[in-house]
Amino acid sequence: MSVIIDDTCITCDACLQQCPVNAIVDDSNNPMGNNRYYVQPEKCIECVGVYDDPQCAAICPSIGCITWDMPYTKEFDGHYLNTEVYKLSEKNGIPKSPEFREKKYRKDILNEDRGVGKIVQEEPDELVEVG
Ligand code: SF4
Ligand code: SF4
């Protein structure tokens, strides 16, 4: 991955249409059975090469709902094989983990800035009235 959607998702559907690689599924198709949208990490490219920032987070009205996850690289194969958090699609019964295929990720986002609570979209600064 990439990015991950937490339980503050309000199932508004805004992100689904924004994803350039159709990595997001809605709550009724969430493979973990949770009542929220779900990013398929084996598909997410962090919008690299398409947009400047993850578009799902840019449009999400629930600030902080979408957080950075680890890069989808072999180094994090075990992370993505955690079946309590992810359900990867499979090919011939083998999960499409990073060992199967790595995905693009934003190299400017360091690993220490990824993980639970590391939000992609910051709370906007308080608006200052002008004039
Ligand atoms: S970061 Fe981009 S590629 Fe990944 S789920 Fe969000 S919109 Fe899709
Ligand atoms: S835009 Fe945000 S709140 Fe809306 S469905 Fe996507 S993750 Fe959930």
Task: Jot down its keywords.
Alpha-Beta Plaits; two-stranded antiparallel sheet; binds iron/sulfur cluster
What does this structure look like?
This protein is low in regular secondary structure. The protein has a single domain, classed as Alpha-Beta Plaits (2-Layer Sandwich). The protein contains 2 helices and 6 strands; from the N terminus they run βββαβαββ. It has helices at about 55-60, 75-80; strands at about 5, 25, 40, 65-70, 90, 95. The chain has a two-stranded antiparallel ribbon. Strand 5 and strand 6 (about 95) form a beta hairpin. The chain is globular. The mean pLDDT is about 90. Bound molecules: iron/sulfur cluster (2 copies).
Biggest sheet: strands side by side, in what order? 1-4
Run of helices and strands:
EEEHEHEE
Helix-and-strand structural type: little secondary structure
The tally of strands reads: 6
Helix content: under 10%
Distance from N terminus to C terminus (CA atoms, Å) equals: 44 Å
Which term fits the overall shape?
A: globular
Radius of gyration: 15 Å
Please state the average pLDDT score.
Answer: 92
CATH class: Alpha Beta
CATH architecture: 2-Layer Sandwich
What hetero molecules are bound to the protein chains?
iron/sulfur cluster
Sheet bearing the most strands, described? Answer: 2 strands, antiparallel
The structural domain count equals: 1
How many DSSP H or I helices?
Answer: 2
Low-pLDDT runs of 5+ residues are none
Strand percentage, roughly? 5-15%
- Any idea of the CATH topology? Alpha-Beta Plaits
Condensed summary:
The protein has helices spanning 55-59, 77-80, and strands at 3-5, 24-25, 38-39, 66-68, 90-91, 94-95. The chain has 131 residues and is low in regular secondary structure. The chain has one domain: Alpha-Beta Plaits.
